[in-house]
Specification:
This protein has helices spanning about 15-20, 40-45, 70-80, 95, 105-120, 140-145, 150-165, 185-190, 200-225, 250-270, 275-285, 295-300, 350-365, 390-410, 460-470, and strands at about 10, 85-90, 125-130, 175, 230-235, 240-245, 305-310, 315, 340, 345-350, 370, 415-420, 440, 455. It is an alpha/beta fold and about 475 residues long. The chain has one domain: Glycosidases (TIM Barrel). The protein is globular. It comes from Paenibacillus borealis.
Length: about 475
């Protein structure tokens, strides 16, 4: 069993990291616009620093990003030249509903995305569209407290109903919430949550989680009603936890940390809160407020497929003396002495991808889709913007070998593979441009200087060959 002729090769971006045009086309302000460069970024993402307006002390890279708002036609041509079968992108919620609570959508926003989808279709590229990629209208935070408020489910339903109807026939593959488990690790990034000093943060996070999961079920229901051809998936920030040692306590901690992330997908794919979660809530005095009918909705509107991001595995230990953590990732991890690390301290583990695929497929028995995978690195272009990025090619080659083995040797059902940041974009965790993932170099630096000119890296031609050969030619 090989990858098959319909395997969806492509690349992935997010509106907030690539689009720019934050104040154009009647777009409203979103959470992700307000993530600054610099030391305060992590505090804002965690909901500890409240930043709901721009100020003069910070640089906000998402305002311009890589200006795909104006350059998407040429960018899509480059994707088509590589041979993309699919392009994963997100819709900016505030382009469709600038404040989030309007009854009628913003027609300029609908037209903008319709034009993108038609351009993709012109090049026979299947859009894979994320409905909420770390994207909450700021007005909904100010007026309602964001996802802590049940009313958000209704606002999201209105947004979903609008885009599913408007783009019927143009988009078939949808994802509800990007890295839905990120709410536990970066609550403002994941759900627009800002905490008050005396709040029970765990209670707020898990209640907001319930509202997002309800919204995901509602979206799944509507997608199938509007067009039975629609395929809708969930999206997990993936990567398993290894025990640091063979001490039973370390293994038990790894199981516990994995469950923390699986909880979301257990509900979206299986349709009910698992017993381990109910016991956790009981132990920790967390009370999830549900309405009548919530459990039925979750049960009857599970996702069609499971997508996930994979950059690295993680390591956990129970011995407090084992404290040497890796750098740079939102997910804390003990350093794995058996693995190399990227320049940002993310550990490189292709075999971990094969393991993750097997674990997810064994657990859910639903088709899988790798929608983010890539290497963030400093690229040094020549005078023509060309980059000899053999380090990126090596990273991707080994991960492609790993997922091919999961399909061909283990029997995992895999729909496709979209590398993260197929064109250089703003890093989510750091806000940097210098942390580059793309096959296409974009002339812009961390301070916002540069021409925004696009140029092809060595990896551009390599990935073109990979797609043409359906993953057979990886040299």
């Amino acid at each position: 069993m090989g990858l098959g002729p319909n395997f969806l090769w492509g690349g992935a971006t997010a509106a907030n990291q690539s689009e720019g045009g934050y104040n154009l086309g009647n777009r409203g302000l979103a959470t992700v616009d307000l993530l600054p460069m610099g030391n305060d970024r992590a505090g804002v993402m965690a909901g500890k620093i409240k930043m709901l307006e721009f100020d003069d002390q910070h640089f906000y890279p998402a305002q311009v990003a890589i200006d795909m708002y104006h350059q998407y036609i040429d960018d899509i041509k480059l994707f088509a030249e590589m041979g993309f079968k699919t392009y994963r992108m997100s819709i900016s919620w505030t382009r469709i509903f600038p404040n989030g609570d309007e009854e009628k959508p913003n027609e300029e926003g609908l037209t903008f995305y319709e034009n993108i989808f038609r351009e993709l279709r012109k090049h026979n590229i299947e859009p894979l569209v994320t409905l909420a990629h770390f994207d909450v209208p700021v007005t909904l935070i100010k007026k309602y407290g964001s996802w802590r408020n049940r009313k958000m489910v209704g606002f999201f339903e209105n947004y979903c109903r609008t885009v599913f109807n408007h783009f019927r026939g143009l988009v078939k593959y949808w994802l509800t919430f990007n890295e839905v488990n990120m709410i536990l690790h970066a609550p403002f990034l994941g759900a627009g949550l800002c905490f008050e000093p005396d709040e029970n943060e765990e209670q707020v996070k898990y209640q907001a989680m319930h509202h997002q999961l309800m919204a995901s079920a509602v979206a799944t229901k509507i997608a199938h009603e509007v067009d039975p051809e629609n395929r809708i998936g969930c999206m997990l920030a993936g990567g398993n936890n290894y025990p640091y040692s063979c001490r039973p306590e370390d293994y038990a901690r790894a199981v516990e940390k994995d469950r923390e992330n699986y909880l979301f997908i257990d509900i979206q794919a299986r349709g009910a809160y698992p017993n381990y979660a109910l016991k956790k809530f009981e132990r920790e005095n967390i009370h999830i407020v549900m309405q009548e009918g919530d459990q039925e909705l979750l049960k009857h509107h599970t996702v069609d497929f499971i997508s996930f991001s994979y950059y690295s595995s993680r390591v956990v230990a129970t011995d407090p003396s084992v404290a040497h953590e890796t750098a740079g990732n939102i997910f804390k991890s003990i350093k794995n002495p058996y693995l190399k690390s990227s320049e940002w301290g993310w550990q490189i583990d292709p075999l971990g991808l094969r393991s993750a695929l097997n674990i997810l497929y064994d657990r859910y028995q639903k088709p899988l889709f790798i929608v983010e995978n890539g290497l963030g690195a400093v690229d040094t272009p020549d005078e023509n913007g060309y980059v000899e990025d053999d380090y990126r090619i090596e990273y991707l080659r080994e991960h492609i070998k790993a997922f091919k083995a999961a399909v061909e040797e283990d029997g995992v059902e895999l729909m496709g593979y979209t590398t993260w940041g197929c064109i250089d974009l703003v890093s989510a965790t750091k806000g940097e441009m210098s942390k580059r993932y793309g096959f296409i170099y974009v002339d812009r630096d961390d301070e916002g200087n540069g021409t925004l000119k696009r140029s092809k890296k060595k990896s551009f031609y390599w990935y073109q060959k990979v797609i043409q050969s359906n993953g057979e030619d990886l040299e």
